[in-house]
Amino acid sequence: MLILPAICVVTALLLVPIGQAVYYSMANWNGITSQWVGPSTYLTEFRNPLFWRVLENNALLLIAVPVTMLCGVFLAALLHEHVFGWKVFRAAIIIPTAVSWVVLGLIGIQAFAQHGLVNRLLGGVGLAALERNWLGSPTDALAAVGVTFVYSLVGVNTLIFVTGMATIDPAIYEAGKLDGTSWLQSYVHLTLPMLRRYLVFTFVITTISAFSALFSLIYTMTGGGPNYGTTTIEFFIYQQAFGTGAFGVGALLGVVLFVILVSVSAVQVYLMRRSE
Amino acid sequence: MTAVIQQRPVRHSIGHWVTRARQSPGRIAIWLVLAIVSVGLMYPFYFMVMTSFKSETQYELGRGFSLASWTELFSSVPVAREIANSLGICAVSISCILVISTTAGFALAKTEFRGRRFTMLAIIGAMMIPVQSMIIAEYVNFSKIHIINTYAGAIAVYVAIGTPFATFLMSTYFRGIPEELIDAGRCDGLTYTGCFWRIAVPLAKPAFATVVVLQFIPIWNDLLIGLLFLQEPNVRTFTVGLGVLASSRVVNVPSLMAGSLLSTVPAAVVYVVFQRFLVRGLTLGAAR
To answer: Among A75, A107, A179, A247, which one is most buried in terms of CB atoms within 10 A?
Structure first.
């Protein structure tokens, strides 16, 4: 009896719509009327160069995932030393994660503008040659989106790693100290292997975010442009369905995204099982 | 489940820190790096505050102080109405998620029924469904029953998206409650429902806090669902209002920063205050 509300909500509002999405992905659908086409819709879409362009953007954006994790591991190691005021630093590092992507997009526009913060910083450290209107060209705009993504997620990564490090028994390090290992050695050989589960977990949530959490950022910062340069698959879904009324194509792209994310989660399950 | 050891370092006097810093110059370097990173990460907040208190010309000049952007924000957007919408939608959605996930989590963790394993699997599977994959069908379904542009429609979507993870979290939490406690309750003549209300719910307060913080941020910050399900200005949430305002490009930068600041403060406060519960919720995922 207690479980009924959850079953109703999940079935009616999640499972049924995803089933409908699978059905309509194989139909010519404008939201009101639909004509069954069959699985050939997938072949048609796979022949669309724009589809691959969008997936390429997604692939490039994935570079930000290891960058975020490296920054997180590094900051967590520093925080774990518990220097004076480390709790204040921890709060400062986690707060950016609370900022909505809409706000980050608005700040991003200013920061990456011709006279914005990023160019001033580059000029300040003698890299004036790299100054440019970041949101003006497709590749640069994608890089700007990637940097904003790292900024937003580095806090969560750090927090998870700090928590993971707190679970490690300090006695392990004592043994290392006796053997005369350096700080870096003990970090690479003792800490990182112990953090394995946490590394897998952050890898998965950061990858999932890169695929499915950036809609608001792209909407406010670049609108998917210039010239589809920052259109990722999730933004493409929105554009196709609600911009051009191609609901069937939108549903199809949604199914593709779902399959990608299930694969990522399957990798997680596999890696976690193996680590046990 | 891996045990999460709570960090509770002893409070030290300033003298202690000075001695430790003298002993190892490396710690000073660490402190400096952390300080620089923190300042860098907080810069956008500084930018928001400074810019929001300038007029458009002052922003271009880079100096000056004015409240013009705030008055413009309040005159171009129904700020109070939108914030009230945001808070109301958050409150109702989170309450629904709490009720649904607590009952379901208890049932999954502490009772036996047919299809329990299958239900658990379905809920974990539902966690993987990206919003963008089901939102089109959901939108069409909702427009057929005419609940687009109603609070109820948006709340239903938020509840649906939040329920699977919250249920997973609650069932993991309830599994941690010793079976003996429930058995003792049964001996005292309580029904399962009685055990739920008298034993499980009072024990689950920290888990409630985790669910609240993990649900508040995404709902408060959401744009996509609001953009589709709350198109009319009078039902819009504050984040959606800001997103629409930004894309219309009629308002100046300082006003947008004033709005951004207003949208960020509640989320940041919730984050810092509930940090402990946030960590719990996040690491439950790592420990599963």
So the answer is: A107
* Per-residue model confidence (pLDDT) at position A163: 84
Residues 6 or more apart whose Cβ sits within 8 Å of residue B65: B53, B54, B58
Confidence of residue B22 (pLDDT cuts 50, 70, 90): low
> Contact at 8 Å (CB) between A64 and A149?
yes
Q: Do A83 and B285 touch (CB under 8 A)?
A: no
Distance CA A199, CA A161 (A): 8
Task: Give the C-alpha separation, B6 to B279, whole Å.
Answer: 11
Q: What pLDDT, on the 0 to 100 scale, is given for residue A134? A: 82
Q: What does the alpha-carbon distance between residue B152 and residue A228 come to, in Å, rounded to a whole number?
A: 35
CB A25 within 8 A of CB A251: yes
Percent of chain A whose predicted confidence (pLDDT) is above 90: 10
B138 Cα distance to chain centroid: 23
Going by pLDDT thresholds of 50, 70 and 90, the confidence category of residue B127 is confident
Residues of chain B with CATH 1.10.3720.10: 78-287
Q: Alpha-carbon distance B32 to B146, whole Å? A: 57
Does residue B27 sit at the A interface (CB-CB below 8 Å)? yes
Q: Pick from A9, A78, A241: which is nearest to B33 by CB?
A: A78
Q: Which amino acid is at B209?
A: A
Cα of B201 vs its chain's centroid, Å: 21
Taking the C-alpha atoms of residue A265 and residue B265, their distance in angstroms, rounded to an integer, is 33
For residue A171, the one-letter residue type is A
B74 contact partners, CB below 8 Å, separation of at least 6 = none
Orientation of helix B25-52 relative to helix A138-166, angle to 10°: 130
> How many beta-carbon pairs under 8 angstroms link A with B?
263
Chain B: residue whose CA lies nearest to A201: B286
Structure tokens at A70: 């490296």
Tell me the two tokens of residue B10: 């002893």
CB pair distance less than 8 Å for B38 and A89: yes
Mean of pLDDT values over B51-74:
79
Report pTM. Answer: 0.85
Task: Provide the shortest C-alpha distance from residue B182 to chain A (in Å).
Answer: 16
CATH 1.10.3720.10 matches B78-287 = yes
| Radius of gyration of chain B from its Cα atoms, rounded to whole angstroms | 24
Residue A201 has what pLDDT? 84
pLDDT for B158: 93
Q: If you search the block for the tokens 């744009």, which residue do you land on? A: B223
More confident residue, B137 or A30: B137
**What is the pLDDT averaged over residues A69-91?**
87
**Model-level ipTM above the cut of 0.90:** no
Domains of chain A plus CATH, in order, are: 57-230 (1.10.3720.10)
